Amino acid sequence: MSASKIAPYHRPAGGWGALKNVAIQLVTQGIPLKGARTLLSANQPSGFDCPGCAWPDRDHASTFEFCENGAKAVAAEATRRRVTPDFFAAHSVTDLLALDDYTLEGYGRLTHPMRYDAATDRYAPIAWDDAFTLIGEHLRALPDPDQAAFYTSGRTSNEAAFLYQLFVRQYGTNNFPDCSNMCHEPTSVGLPPTVGIGKGTVTLDDFEQADTLLLFGQNPGTNHPRMLGELREAARRGATIVSVNLLHERGLERFADPQSPTEMLSLGGTAISNHYVTPACGGDFAFVKGVIKHVLERDALARADGEPAWLDDAFIAEHTHGFDDFAADVRRERWEDLERASGVSQAQMQQIGEVYLRGERVIATWGMGITQHRHAVATIQMIVNLMLLRGNIGRPGAGLCPVRGHSNVQGDRTVGINEKPSPDFLDRLGQVFAFAPPRRDGLNVVDTISAMRDGRIKVFVCMGGNFAMATPDTPRTWEGLRQCDLTVHVATKLNRSHLVHGRDALILPCLGRTEIDVQEGAVQGITVEDSMSMVHLSYGINAPASEHLRSELAIVAGIAQATMGHALGGVDDWHWYVQDYDRIRDAIAATFDDFADFNRRVRQRGGFRLPVPPSTRQWLTANARANFTTHPLPHEMPIDVARRQAGERSAEVLQLATIRSHDQYNTTIYGLNDRYRGVFGQRRVVFANAQDLDARGLRAGERVDLVGVWHDGVARRADDFLLVAYDIPRGCIAAYYPETNALVPLDAITDGAGTPTSKSIPVVLERRAA
Ligand SMILES: Nc1nc2c(c(=O)[nH]1)N[C@H]1C(S)=C(S)[C@@H](COP(=O)(O)OP(=O)(O)OC[C@H]3O[C@@H](n4cnc5c(=O)[nH]c(N)nc54)[C@H](O)[C@@H]3O)O[C@H]1N2
Ligand SMILES: Nc1nc2c(c(=O)[nH]1)N[C@H]1C(S)=C(S)[C@@H](COP(=O)(O)OP(=O)(O)OC[C@H]3O[C@@H](n4cnc5c(=O)[nH]c(N)nc54)[C@H](O)[C@@H]3O)O[C@H]1N2
Ligand SMILES: [Mo]
C-alpha cells in the first residue's frame, strides 16, 4: 500500500489511473489472467449483472463497458483468499474485533456455515441443517413474530428477495429494515404523491436526447463510473451540464474514457460540467427554490411584455394540480432568505434558472447529497416542481433520474421488501398464496435499532450487508445487536456485523453473483432491476468460492422450511421453489401484473422494462395528475437548530457530510486511496475550508477529534482525523463513512422518510493532544 500523503489530483477522472488501479486490485486479490475473463463477462448477455452499482447499461448486450469500480467489485468477490474454519479456530471474536474493516474483508470469502461458541469466543463450523433448525427454533419460540426483523442489502436478487418476503410474511411480520431506508427512501416517499411512482422516469435513450442535465449531489466518477460515459457523450454533443455538489468532484469536471485512444494519448479528457454550483450542506432545497423563483419571474416578465410564456401552460393545465398555491409560495420567498439557506448567490440561482429556461429537454439526477438530509423529501419534490414547470417529465430526452446505489436495491423493493407494504399488494399476495399476510407496518432501519435496544426485537436476520457499520450511531447500534437472542448473517465476506453479535449467532456463506449457481443439475440465472427499471437475467461464470456455499435462495428455503414446516401456494416444501428458479419467477408473475410472462420476457435480448407510467404522462396519483408541492423555507435550517443547542460553542459548529472514497464500496474498503480528492494511504481525513480552520486556530496537517452536538446530550465522537484544507463551502466539512457513523444520532432523520441525515451532522473539531 502506498505511503500516506495528501497530493491534489489534476488529471481527468478515468484515464490511465483507472486502468492501473484495476491491475493493482487483481494482483491484491490474487486473481491471475483469468480475472480478465471475469471482468469481461460483467453486463454481457450470457454473463452476470455487475454487482457494483445500479446504473443501467446499453441493452445488456453491447460491447464491454470498462468501469474501474465495477472491476473492483468483481475482483473483490472473485478473490482467491478464503476465510475457513481454521481461520476462525485461530482467531477469537475479541481478537478479530480489534482489526479494521479493510483487514477483515481482506481475508476473503467465507467458506463454511459457522456458529458462535461463547465458551471459546470463537466461531465453529455447523452443518447447514443444524443451522436452519436453530433459526427455526428461535423464531418459533418468539411469542410474537414482530419480535424478529429481517434486513436486506440491495445485492439480493429479485428471486431471493421475493421468496424471503413471502416466508417472512407467512411467519407473520412486516419488519423489513432495508439498506434503502438509509439511501433513496426519501425518493421512494417523495415521488409517489407527485408523479405516482417512486422510481426514475428516464431511460438511457433519454440521456442521448437531453440537451440539459442537472446533476444534484452525486459523485458518478466514483460511485457510478459508467454514467460518466453518458455524460461525456452529452458534453461532446453540446448539451449543457450543471453540477450541484458540495465538493468539486473530479469526475464531474473532466473525464478521459479509457476506451478512447485519443483521450488516453492526449491525457486531456473531456470537460463535463459547464456550470458548477457548490451549495452549503443541505442548501439544495433553497437553491432549487431560488432557481424556480427566477423561472417564475422571467415568465411573468415575458407575459407582461407580450412575449411567449416560459412555462408550459398546456401541460400545467392538462396534467398538473396545485400550481397556483405553489407559485404563490415561491413568489413570497425573499432572495436574501434563499441565499442564506442555500449558500448560493442570487446571481448564480438566476444563472442556473436561465440554463433551465434555455433547455428544451432537461433531465435532473440526484444521489445521496440530496437524500441524506433533514429536508430531503421536500428537496426532491422541489426538483419535481422545477421539472413540471416546463413539462420536463414524460417526453423524450426529459425526466427524473434518481441514481440508485446497490445493484438490485430497486428490484428488492419492487418484489416486496417493504416495511410499509400497500394494502393492495398484501391482498394480492394473500390471494395468490392463500394466506393472511400481516397488516401492521413493520420497522425500518433506525426503528429496528431502537427496538433491539429496548428488547422488542430478539431475532435478527440479515440477507447481506453490514448492519453494524452501515447504520448510524454505531455504539448504540452495537448495544442493540448484542442484546439479541440470535443474529444471522447471510454473507459472502467476513465483516464487523458478524463480530457484533447476539447470544446465539450464525454466519451463513452464500454464492456471489459472479458464481455459477447449479440446482438439480441445471444452471440457474437470477434477475435484477437497474436504476431505469430494466429487468434482466444474470448468470455467474466462476466456480463457487467453496463447495459448501449455498445460493441465497437455497438459504431462504432452508430457513423457511425449518421455521414453517410447509410452504405456501399449495407447495409442501420450500425447496421446491429453489429446484428451478423459473418457478419463483412464475410466482412473481402471479403476484405482480407488471411481471406478466416474466420467464419469457426476461429471456429476450436485453430483458424488459417495467412500466413507468409517468414516462408516458400517466399519473397514478390520488387525483390522477402530477402534483406541484408547496414547501415554505423552514424558519430554522437544521444547522441553526444545532447551533442553538450548542450553547457557548455555537459558533464552532460545522456540518459534516459523510461520503464515499474512491476505493470503497459502502463498508467494503478496497484500498486506502481516494485519488481524485488527492488522498493516499489513509482514510481518517477530514476536509475543511481553510478559513474555518483559521477561525478555530487550527491548521491543515494537524490531527483532530470530531465531537457530535445533539439535543440528547449523548457523547458522540470519532477520534483522530487528519485535517485537510479543501475547496468546500464554509461551515461544512466532509469525511468518509463508515468511520464517522458513530457521530450520526439515531434520531437525526429525514422528515417523513426516516433516513439518517448522514450528509449534515452537526459536529465541532477538537485538536488532539500532541
Ligand atoms: N465504487 C462505489 N460505487 C458505489 C458505492 C460505493 O460505495 N462505491 N455505493 C453505492 C450506493 S449504495 C450508493 S447509494 C451510491 C452512492 O453514490 P453517491 O450518491 O454519489 O454517494 P456519496 O459518495 O455518499 O456522495 C454523494 C455526493 O454528494 C455530495 N454532497 C454531500 N452533501 C451535499 C449537499 O448537501 N448538497 C449537494 N448538492 N451535494 C452534496 C458529495 O460531495 C458527494 O459528491 O453509489 C453506489 N455505487
Ligand atoms: N454515514 C453514512 N452511512 C451510510 C451511508 C452514508 O453515505 N453515510 N450510506 C448508506 C447507504 S446509501 C447504504 S445503501 C448502506 C449500505 O449498507 P449495506 O448494504 O448493509 O452495506 P454494504 O457495505 O454494502 O454490505 C457489504 C457486505 O455485504 C456482503 N455481501 C456482498 N455481496 C453479497 C451477496 O451477493 N450476498 C450476500 N448475502 N451478501 C453479500 C458482504 O459480506 C459485505 O461485507 O449504508 C448506508 N450508511
Ligand atoms: Mo445506497
Describe what is shown at a glance.
With about 775 residues, the chain is α/β, with parallel strands linked by helices. The protein has 33 helices and 33 strands. It has a 6-stranded mixed β-sheet with strand order 6-5-18-17-16-7. Strands 25-32-29-31-30-33 form a 6-stranded mixed beta barrel.
Characterise the protein shown here:
The chain has a 6-stranded mixed β-sheet with strand order 6-5-18-17-16-7. It has a 6-stranded mixed β-barrel with strand order 25-32-29-31-30-33. The chain has 3 domains: 83-179 and 408-513 and 547-602, Rossmann fold (3-Layer(aba) Sandwich); 186-403, Dimethylsulfoxide Reductase, domain 2 (3-Layer(aba) Sandwich); 638-767, Barwin-like endoglucanases (Beta Barrel), CATH 2.40.40.20. The longest helix has 21 residues, at 284-304. It is built from 33 helices and 33 strands. Helices cover 36% and strands 17% of the residues. By secondary structure, the chain is an alpha/beta fold. A hairpin with a 2-residue loop joins strand 26 and strand 27 (668-669). The mean pLDDT is 94. It binds ligand MGD (2 copies) and molybdenum atom (MO).
Provide the spatial order of strands within the biggest beta sheet. Answer: 6-5-18-17-16-7
Radius of gyration: 25 Å
Main sheet characteristics? 6 strands, mixed
Multimerization status: single chain
Per CATH, which architecture of the largest domain?
3-Layer(aba) Sandwich
Separation, N- and C-terminal Cα atoms = 26 Å
Shape: globular
Tally the beta strands: 33
Q: List bound small molecules.
A: ligand MGD, molybdenum atom
| Beta-strand residue percentage | 15-25%
- Domain module count: 3
**Number of continuous helical runs:** 33
Q: Quote the average pLDDT.
A: 94
Task: Name the helicity range.
Answer: 25-40%
User: CATH top level of the largest domain?
Assistant: Alpha Beta
Domain Molybdopterin oxidoreductase: 109-489
Family: Belongs to the prokaryotic molybdopterin-containing oxidoreductase family.
Protein name: CbbBc protein
Organism: Pandoraea eparura
